[in-house]
Every structure is written in C-alpha cells, then in structure tokens.
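Meet our chain:
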Amino acid sequence: MSEHAVVDNPAGSRYELRSGDEVLGVVAYHRNGEVINLIHTEIDADHEGEGLGSDIARGVLDDARRQGLRVLPTCPFIAGWIDKHPDYQDLVADRYS
C-alpha cells in the first residue's frame, strides 16, 4: 500500500488526502485572510473505517499551523476531532476576522 499525503488544492478550495493519483478524502474550506473555515469532510466510501478521517484532519490542521492560520471548524467532524485532540485547540478562531 502506498503512502498517502494531505495536499492543499487552493483552486478547488479543498484539501485532498491522496494516495498517488487517487483522492481518498477531502476537506472543503473557505479562507478569509488569516482564518480558514473548514466546512465539510468526506472520505471515499470504499475507505471508510480506515482512520483516514483522522489522517486528513491532522494534516489539514498541521498545515494551518505551519501557515499561521486560525481555524473555524464548522464541519462537525473537524470540530469533534479537535475536541478529542486538545493540542490543536489553540488554532480555533472565535469567528472570521
């Protein structure tokens, strides 16, 4: 099995979890200045239950941290993931600036 990577696709306003050319999952977002609103997470049905949701959540949040962005987790999955991983709580924005 090949490695997968979380890749920002700014033209599509989404992060993609990729294994080679295959997109295994996405996190759609809207960006406003230094705040990124994570609005929807989806994992390919053929890959549900493999822990890929956690992989993409961690990758997206790590990228936001690298860029110095604040995160607005309107996606229930991302919000729940952050609740379970308090070391990412510092990224959460109160609202759009």
